[in-house]
Structure formats: structure tokens, C-alpha cells
Amino acid sequence: METMITWLNGVLDQREATANASGDNADARCWSVIDDGIDCRVLDAAGEVIVHDEGSPTREQADHIALNDPKQILADVAADRAIAAEHAIEYPDTEFAYCAVCHDHDRHDAAAAPCRTLRLLAAKYATWPGYQPSWAPEGSRG
């Protein structure tokens, strides 16, 4: 259980570090697409070319790259960290581990920790090295 949380934090740390390293300031991390009908380029907020190569990316590829700019990745990481913090595991590494949000205290059930929410969050990164299929939420398609 703690292994999944440790792995997820490592993934988020890596995404955050990569996004932060992509530009000198927050403005440089917000990207857009310029398509003049000949070339399609991805630019940062200062107008500097981020992606351009012979043949350049297709418009669809450029749009995808711009939609996943560092500013968006940093927002995604912050949201993922907030979700993970909200669903923190109480009494980790014990047989009594549970999610304080998802656990049904009235039923005193032994809800599996990590909860479905944390498992879904980790599943976003299932293609990353180290992800374990056993972490997949019940009923998910793999």
C-alpha cells in the first residue's frame, strides 16, 4: 500500500520537476500553436519556438503538445497531490489501514486501503515504469 503512494509521489515529483525545468518563468511555461498554413509551430508566451522541426508537427500534434504545456502539467500535479492528500491513508502499514474519506465508519467495514480514488489516481500513470497491475481499481479495464 505505501509502495503505491511512494511510487505515485515519485511520478508527481518527476512530472513537476520536468515542467519546472521547461522554462525560466511561469509565462514561458504557457504554450500556444501558430499555424500559418505552411508550418505548424508551438510557441511559449514570449513567442519563442518550443517545437519545430523539418516538416513540423501536424496541427493535431501541435495542439496536443500545447494542451499539455508545463503550466497545465503543474496544475495537474497540484490537483493530483490535493486528491491524494484528501484520501490519505489512516494507520498505514497496519491491518487497520483505511481512507478517512471513503471508509464507512457506521458499518465498521474493512475497506481496502488505498481507496478506489487513490487507485484511480495512480491508474492515470499506468504506463509509467513501476506501476503494478495489482494497484488497478476493481472493475477497471486494463
Walkthrough of the structure:
The chain has 142 residues and is an alpha+beta fold. Helix content is 38%, strand content 11%. It has helices at residues 2-21, 59-67, 70-86, 116-123; strands spanning 32-35, 40-43, 49-51, 89-90, 98-99. The strands form 2 sheets. The chain has a 3-stranded antiparallel sheet, covered by helices on one side. A two-stranded antiparallel ribbon has the order 4-5. Helix 1 runs antiparallel to helix 3 (70-86). The two termini are 20 Å apart.
- Given the structure, what is the number of helices? 4
Number of strands: 5
Classify the secondary structure makeup into a structural class: alpha+beta
Mean pLDDT: 84
Termini, distance in Å?
20 Å
Helix percentage: 25-40%
Oligomer: single chain
Shape: elongated
Outline the fold blueprint.
Elements: H1 2-21, E1 32-35, E2 40-43, E3 49-51, H2 59-67, H3 70-86, E4 89-90, E5 98-99, H4 116-123
Antiparallel strand pairs: 1-2, 2-3, 4-5
Helix pairs in contact: 1-3
Key descriptive features of the protein:
142 residues, single chain, 11% strand, 5 strands, two-stranded antiparallel ribbon, three-stranded antiparallel sheet
